[in-house]
Design brief:
Layout: H1 9-18, H2 58-61, E1 74-78, E2 83-87, H3 100-103, E3 120-122, E4 131-135, H4 137-145, E5 163-167, E6 171-174, E7 178-179, E8 184-188, E9 195-198, E10 206-209, E11 229-237, E12 248-251, E13 258-266, E14 276-280, E15 287-294, E16 298-315, E17 319-337, E18 341-344, E19 348-349, E20 352-353, E21 357-366, E22 370-373, E23 387-403, E24 409-429, E25 435-440, E26 451-452, E27 455-456, E28 472-474, E29 483-487, H5 489-502, E30 505-508, E31 512-515, E32 519-521, E33 526-529, E34 534-537, E35 549-554, E36 564-572, E37 579-584, E38 587-601, E39 632-640, E40 645-656, E41 672-679, E42 684-694, E43 699-704, E44 707-717, E45 749-754, E46 757-767, E47 787-789, E48 791-794, E49 798-806, E50 808-814, E51 817-821, E52 826-827, E53 830-837
Parallel strand pairs: 3-5, 4-6, 5-8, 6-9, 7-10, 8-11, 9-11, 10-12, 11-13, 12-14, 13-15, 14-16, 15-16, 16-17, 17-18, 17-21, 18-22, 21-23, 22-23, 24-53, 28-30, 29-31, 30-33, 31-34, 32-35, 33-36, 34-36, 35-37, 36-38, 37-39, 38-40, 39-41, 40-42, 41-43, 42-44, 43-45, 44-46, 45-48, 46-49, 47-50, ...
Antiparallel strand pairs: 1-2, 19-20, 23-24, 24-25, 26-27, 49-53, 50-51, 52-53
């Protein structure tokens, strides 16, 4: 992931040391509204040293079920046109100490780590007490670092030392930051949340530090290269730390395939306090869900290239969300209660507005003087900054719904309850333009199959906290090895078939599971991985691009049922030009789900597709004759076929490696994978929240002959090596898969929509940073010259909110005609359009 230098180191440091309700040095965040405490907040969600009973507040954050979910194993969609419900196997809720993940035998194998390396570690095995009295800082940090793992500042990145660091119920007192390591999942008990409590003498900037600043002023890892990590199921309590301490619960500069879930932030409620819940200053995310914030100067204080955040609840924060900067940001299911300002977008960077755009949907703002505040004026620029789209936003007792520069009222609020059906600000194309808008717009007409009530359906990743240990089957106990050598095809297929028949949940212990044939996932399967275990295709079965075969196949054409799949990676080893990494055929009346399931092609240990095998070659003209055939590594990353329907996808990254993750210098490489995500479901009803697809040859996303799809912040990157070679090689256009016919010299499409209807995209970033591995074509002011076109709409109806492009001359092409040029939509480093409809 490319990290353009649009924020200087001095700017970032200024954010770090100065960000609060007051003005800062180079990012100006001004606020004259203080917290309104007309009513007290609800009781805090935890009160004892033995953990937290989540039942008191599970209705707020949906710890496992989300909207339309219950207990992590059931879901409901209700709308005027359809009612869908189901429930899976239930069991009486065990005591909170009986969480299956704590008690299952841990036999994860990291084949490229040192002998005896532990994947799973319990902090109490390292001396943490969790009694609310003992200082557990050192013990927790030892549990994280044990085993020669990838530390910030000493290791660029690696996939070889994954870890789950588990916290049983309890209150863990810390006097200095918990230091996160690369490829780490910090996980608490979801049924009885552990509390991480900053001590009264705590004096650091953050409680959990997701990327430690070094003495040089740089982050320990480049924020856009921090992948494959999670934090979930915690209470972070800062209430005894001094109110005047500038402290945040989590510091989270991050890239893709990362997530925060099911976390409560408890902060000071003293007037003028400086506490923050979540702080993000840079990166290329990312996904966050199911967070609750009490008090503080800001619940969120965030900036990143793009993010999807949903199901966030704020009580009594001076500012619920301080948007430091972004290119695009999608908020869904936000509830802001009794705060001073809901969302503040007025931050500036060196006198230029840093906030590109925000999309807010399916949300509520209550008892808050200012709902949303922006700062764009003709004098402040860039001209297309501060794009705003609101859709289905409910307000109650909000004085000013939208406030502009100089605290002018742009949209009045309401003393009672009312709904903003849709409101927009920025440039619009319908389909031609640009036409500046600032006011009410026509809301998208949402198909009944996509909604639960008035809101788009959503469901949080199931954690199966109510399932007894007897409901789980270890894939290693079933005979798979996962050592990166053994052929595990037969063992995995037998285990999945047996578990689906018995109604069991398959637990993939960490490992690298080599497969030489298709892994079949039958209807009824529930699969969960330990720290992203890898299914790794290998051999001749997947090597023929003229006869592509699925590596993981979910259902067969014409089959129906439900599948739940979370926390895994599907990859390929060596030349695999016929590998379709994931093929989804299943039709689901009750939605199936994929959460934190990723594809990774090349660039990691065991792939045989690293810098030694697949170096970049910008000084050589690459042709069909000299192209490195051993680096043709996948036919397609994911195919949702015509028979599939009812699929919910959340935090999915389909990545063809642009660099070697194991190389200390993160050296760029060239890997060829033909296609990214192809969706051709004829029935539709598909949701994509927080997905990204990068570095494929022909396209990243392609939707063909489909309809009824809702997306929240999709993101792409064009292959760095293109147009050397261009998109004509090495994969010839295949009409069976509706491939685009590319012109000579063209780079692949970021997004292509063909013969489709009712596609709703709530935030999209299409980036082309390089031309033949040279970045100057995307540098600000250089004419966006990396590629000519990136987004094609062909005989389709689509609604797009907050479109951002980089390095692309023409932002939108409709039926072969370029309708939007970048120079009409300048927004700093990116080019932005608030609304596009065809």
């Amino acid at each position: 992931m490319h990290n353009p230098s649009f924020l200087s180191a001095s700017t970032l440091l200024a954010i770090l040391v100065s960000s609060s309700c007051a003005n800062v040095v180079t990012i100006t965040i001004s606020s004259t509204i203080t917290t309104c405490y007309s009513t007290p907040p609800p009781p805090p969600p935890c009160s004892t040293v033995v953990g937290v009973d989540s039942s008191a507040w599970s209705s707020l954050i949906g710890s496992s079920g989300g909207s339309g979910g219950s207990g992590g194993s059931s879901s409901t969609i209700t709308s005027q046109s359809s009612t869908i419900s189901s429930s899976s196997t239930s069991a009486s809720a065990p005591a909170c100490t009986d969480y299956w993940l704590e008690n299952i035998q841990h036999q994860g194998l990291a084949p490229y780590a040192a002998a005896g390396y532990k994947v799973f570690r319990n902090v109490q095995d390292y001396g943490a007490k969790g009694d609310g009295v003992t200082d557990d800082t050192a013990a927790i940090n030892l549990a994280i670092s044990d085993g020669g793992r990838c530390a910030p500042g000493t290791c660029g990145s690696t996939t070889t030392t994954p870890a789950i660091v588990y916290f049983p119920p309890g209150t863990y007192l810390v006097s200095s930051p918990i230091i996160d390591y690369y490829y780490t999942q910090l996980i608490g008990n979801p049924g009885c949340l552990p509390v991480i409590k900053a001590s009264a003498g705590f004096s650091a900037r953050w409680v959990i530090d997701g990327d430690v600043y070094q003495p040089s002023g740089s982050l320990g890892w480049g924020s856009t290269n921090v992948f494959w990590r999670q934090i979930r199921n915690f209470v972070i309590d800062m209430t005894v730390a001094p109110p005047t301490l500038l402290v945040a619960g989590i510091h989270w500069p991050t890239g893709q395939a990362s997530s925060l879930q099911n976390i409560v932030f408890q902060m000071s409620t003293a007037t003028g306090n400086l506490h923050q819940g979540l702080f993000i200053e840079e990166g290329s995310g990312g996904f966050v869900t199911d967070l609750v914030f009490y008090g503080g100067a800001q619940g969120l204080n965030v900036g990143n290239q793009q993010f999807t955040m949903r199901n966030l609840t704020f009580f009594n924060s001076a500012t619920a969300i301080m948007q430091l900067w972004d290119w695009g940001w999608t908020y869904k299911g936000v509830s802001i209660n009794n705060c001073g300002v809901g969302i503040d977008m007025t931050g500036v960077n060196v006198d230029q507005l840093s906030v590109g755009g925000v999309v807010l949907i399916d949300s509520d703002i209550n008892d808050t003087p200012v709902g949303l505040r922006f700062g764009n004026t003709a004098a402040t620029g860039p001209p297309a900054s501060n794009n705003i789209i609101l859709e289905n936003v409910r307000i109650n007792n909000v004085g000013v719904a939208i406030q502009g520069a100089g605290q002018t009222t742009v949209l009045a609020g309401s003393a009672g309850a009312t709904t903003i059906s849709a409101w927009g600000r920025g440039n619009s194309y319908t389909p031609t333009g640009p036409t500046p808008i600032q006011g009410f717009i026509n809301a998208n007409v949402r198909p009944g199959g996509l909604v639960s009530g008035a809101d788009f359906y959503e469901r949080s990743k199931p954690q199966y906290e109510n399932m007894p240990l007897t409901q789980f089957v270890s894939i290693r106990d079933a005979g798979a090895v996962g050592d990166g050598v053994t052929d595990d095809t037969a063992a995995i297929n037998a285990a999945l078939a047996s578990a689906a028949t018995a109604g069991k949940i398959v637990f993939f212990d960490f490992g690298v599971y080599v497969v030489t044939g298709t892994i079949f996932v039958p209807a009824g399967s529930k699969i969960v991985g330990e720290s992203y275990p890898v299914i790794l295709s290998s051999g001749a079965y997947f090597a023929n691009m003229a006869a592509p075969m699925p590596v993981v196949q979910v259902g067969l054409a014409g089959q129906s049922g439900q599948v739940e799949w979370s926390d895994m990676i599907v990859s390929s080893r060596g030349a695999q030009g016929g590998a379709i990494l994931i093929e989804w055929n299943l039709a689901s009346s009750t939605p199936s789900g994929m959460w934190d399931v990723h594809t990774r092609v090349g660039g990691f240990a065991g792939s045989n597709l690293q810098v030694g095998q697949c170096p970049k070659t910008p000084t050589v003209e690459v042709t069909s004759a000299n192209l490195a055939a051993n680096c043709i590594a996948a036919f397609m990353s994911m195919h949702i076929t015509a028979s599939a329907s009812g699929l919910y996808m959340e935090n999915i990254w389909l990545w063809v490696a642009d660099h070697d993750v194991e190389d200390p210098a993160l050296t760029q490489i060239t890997i060829y994978a033909g296609r990214g995500l192809l969706v051709e479901s004829t029935a539709g009803d598909i949701w994509l929240y927080g997905t990204a697809v990068e570095h494929h040859v022909l396209y990243e996303y392609q939707f063909y002959g489909t309809h009824n799809i809702a997306m929240g912040q999709i993101q792409t990157e064009t292959a760095y090596y293109q147009p050397n070679p261009d998109a004509l090689i090495p994969f010839p256009a295949d009409a069976t898969f509706h491939d685009p016919v590319m012109a000579a010299g063209a780079s692949g499409w970021g997004l292509r929509i063909v013969d489709s209807t009712d596609l709703f995209i709530y935030g999209v970033g299409l980036y082309s940073f390089f031309s033949n591995n040279n970045v100057t074509c995307s540098n600000q002011g250089n004419g966006e010259a990396c590629q000519a076109r990136i987004f094609s709409v062909e005989t389709s109806t689509v609604s797009v909110y907050n479109l951002n492009t980089v390095g692309t001359t023409n932002m939108i092409t409709v039926d072969g005609v370029d309708v939007a040029v970048y120079s009409d939509n300048l927004d700093g480093f990116v080019d932005s359009i608030a609304l596009f409809r065809s």
